[in-house]
Specification:
This protein is mainly α. Helix content is 77%, strand content 0%.
């Protein structure tokens, strides 16, 4: 049961943290229709390096929150951690394909969460 709870609450924490960071700190143009791919691509063309730091921080804090939550609930299994990380990385890859990003952002957005993930796998308690 702890595996299921760790997974569910880890996913909720991961995506909620990601959403909240973006909601609070992302510079948004009220006139841009972000549901239109062309308008979204045009909006992102005006991004500075700092503008990319907010979604990058959202992704890193999101995965950290999800992994911390999953580990706090289930200390004996790595399965919740793997599932949270898999969902997070799948969303990251879909995001990278759907929205144009600079190469450096794509690299950091994939490598960063993996570097966060490694210590969590190594801290698993034995049952």
């Amino acid at each position: 049961m702890k595996i299921v709870l760790g997974t569910v609450f880890g996913l909720i924490a991961s995506f909620a943290t990601n959403y909240i960071v973006l909601l609070l700190f992302m510079r948004m143009d009220a006139s841009a229709d972000l549901n239109d791919p062309e308008a979204l691509a045009e909006f992102i063309k005006g991004f500075t390096t700092f503008d990319y730091m907010v979604p990058l921080a959202a992704h890193l804090f999101g995965v950290l929150a999800g992994l911390l939550t999953a580990r706090a609930i289930c200390k004996t299994s790595a399965l919740p951690l793997v599932i949270v990380m898999t969902f997070h990385m799948a969303a990251t890859v879909l995001n990278l394909f759907a929205i144009p990003h600079p190469v450096w952002f794509a690299i950091v957005d994939i490598v960063g969460p993996m570097l966060i993930f490694i210590p969590f796998i190594k801290t698993q308690k034995q049952p």
